[in-house]
Design goal:
CATH class of the domain at 8-247 and 427-484: Alpha Beta
Strand content: 5-15%
CATH architecture of the domain at 8-247 and 427-484: Alpha-Beta Complex
Helix content: 25-40%
Number of strands: 11
Structural class: alpha/beta
Distance between the termini: 10 Å
Largest sheet: 11 strands, mixed
Shape: globular
Number of helices: 14
Strand order of the largest sheet: 1-3-2-4-6-5-10-11-9-7-8
CATH topology of the domain at 8-247 and 427-484: Amidase signature (AS) enzymes
Length: about 475
């Protein structure tokens, strides 16, 4: 039975009808991973731990791949860094624990940017992940191994984290559904922190309903984690019955359809918005004046938090320990961190230490925090008049591997379409909306994602609208990359 590109809920139904078994599903995806991963590079490890039969559970033993930043007690969790190349966590992340209790079987780690730091994926210390829709193209931001694995049908779903766009961007570039909840909905406990006030765990799936299904399991209060929100958000099944968008006011920010947006991407997104209008949505064009400062604020706040979080990785208590001779503590740190951390973590640590240092804190970090508050107020004002906001996930389709690695600033600017929502802690989703020509190759068409953003804690409305659009367009049938067809 071919199940490579079936959704979690479809596979779950097959198991419940005894048309297959969870063990057969497990073995099927193990075989696909072993067959294709050497070319795709989505997985850092495929560990064949003992299969556990988990019938009569929500996930029924289904396999889910996990970004190499979620702690799991049975497997090396390295953050795609040589600093933690052999680190096996002593506890499970809260999300992993919840999914395991729901019946999940995980059997490996997905590749990523080192400690989730990067704007193109190309910062893994171990291997290269390719885009299933173009092997010479990047698969997206730091959670790209997870996105590529789902897009190529190597797994029905995967976990990722989104700090400034690292779920939405790779989902867009790999043609899958990427979902980031409101900050605090999903616990960060047991996830290696990059930027503690921004990190949001989420998922990659084939369908909107699968994303909601996993969210229903993962979200909820966690007493181990101070930013965790109280209560539990339980999905109302009636949202899947909605047939149109006549009840929705959708806002299209004009700033993000001007300079910097590739022509083909713009046309594709405009067609998607027109389709939403056909479904009855009221479309309004408005302005977000403060978001033009979002990238600058993000690249002060994020590195500042990175420098604090990475300070624990010194190679003394755990982590990479250099064999070079050390005459003093300074040399110990220099050698251990210099060898254990690659360029991007070092770059952000240095920048973060600078903006937090005496004499510069008020000039940089404090001002960035104030800008963040103004951005949040921008969105609060906007959502007084509209229900959702729609715009592109990325200003371009996936560019070629290593094309921008020599110019980090150019890559940082590509974050402009996802960072504002992260600073405001809003829920967001990337939906496949069609293919567009690349600016560097008019003969090559690559995936484009439509970004839908809702007010804080409006996840269910986001799912409802996204599902209506998904059912109307049926883009899922176009998801399968030719090289990975079963």
């Amino acid at each position: 039975m071919e199940i490579a590109f079936k959704s979690i809920l479809e596979i779950k139904e097959l198991i419940e009808k005894w048309e297959t078994s969870s063990k057969e599903v497990w073995e099927y995806f193990i075989a696909r991973g072993e067959k294709y991963n050497s070319d795709l590079g989505a997985f850092l490890s495929i560990w064949l731990k003992q299969f556990e039969e988990k019938m009569n559970t929500p996930l029924a033993g289904l396999p889910i791949w996990v970004k190499d930043i979620f702690c799991e007690t049975w497997i090396t969790t390295s953050g795609a860094s040589k600093m933690l190349e052999n680190f096996v966590p002593p506890y499970d992340a809260t999300i992993i624990k919840k999914l395991n209790e729901a019946g999940m079987n995980s059997f490996g780690k997905c590749n990523m940017d080192e400690f989730a730091m990067g704007s193109s994926w190309e910062n893994s210390a171990f291997l290269s992940t390719k885009n299933p829709h173009g092997t010479d193209r990047i698969p997206g931001w730091s959670s790209s191994g997870s996105a590529a694995a789902v897009a190529a049908g190597l797994v029905p779903a995967a976990l990722g984290t989104d700090t400034g766009g690292s779920i939405r961007q790779p989902a867009s570039m790999c043609w899958v559904v990427g979902f980031k909840p409101s900050y605090g909905r999903n616990s960060r406990f047991g996830i290696m922190p990059m930027s503690s006030s921004l990190d949001s765990p989420g998922s990659f799936t084939h369908t909107v309903r699968d994303a909601a299904f996993l969210y229903d399991i993962m979200n909820g209060e966690d007493t181990h984690e101070s930013s965790s929100l109280a209560g539990k958000d339980t999905i109302n099944p009636q949202i899947w019955e909605t047939q149109n968008l006549k009840w929705v006011k959708i806002w299209v920010p004009k700033e993000y359809f001007e300079q910097g947006l590739d022509t083909w991407v713009k046309e594709t997104i405009e067609k998607a918005i027109a389709e939403m209008k056909k479904l009855g949505a009221e479309i309004k064009e408005v302005s977000l004046p403060m978001t033009k400062y979002a990238v600058a604020a993000y690249y002060i706040i994020c590195p500042a938090e990175v420098s604090t979080n990475l300070a624990r990785l010194d190679g003394i208590r755990y982590g990479h320990n250099s064999e070079l001779p050390n005459d003093n503590l300074g040399e110990i740190y220099l050698h251990n961190r210099g060898e254990g951390l690659w360029d991007e973590p070092q770059r952000r640590s240095i920048l973060g230490s600078y903006v937090l240092s005496a004499g510069f804190y008020d000039a940089y970090f404090k001002k960035a925090a104030q800008i963040r508050t103004l951005i949040i107020e921008d969105f609060q004002k906007a959502f007084e008049d509209v229900d959702l906001i729609v715009w592109p996930v990325s200003p371009s389709v996936a560019w070629k591997l290593w094309e921008k690695t020599e110019d980090p600033l150019k890559m940082y600017l590509a974050d402009a379409y996802t960072i504002p929502w992260s600073l405001a802690g809003l829920p967001g989703m990337s939906l496949p909306c069609w293919f567009a020509q690349s600016e560097d190759s008019e003969s090559e068409s690559l995936p484009v994602g439509l970004q839908i953003i809702g007010p804080r804690l409006w996840e269910q409305k986001l799912f409802e609208v996204a599902h209506v659009y998904e059912q109307m367009t049926q883009w899922r049938e176009k998801m399968i990359p030719e090289a990975y067809q079963a």
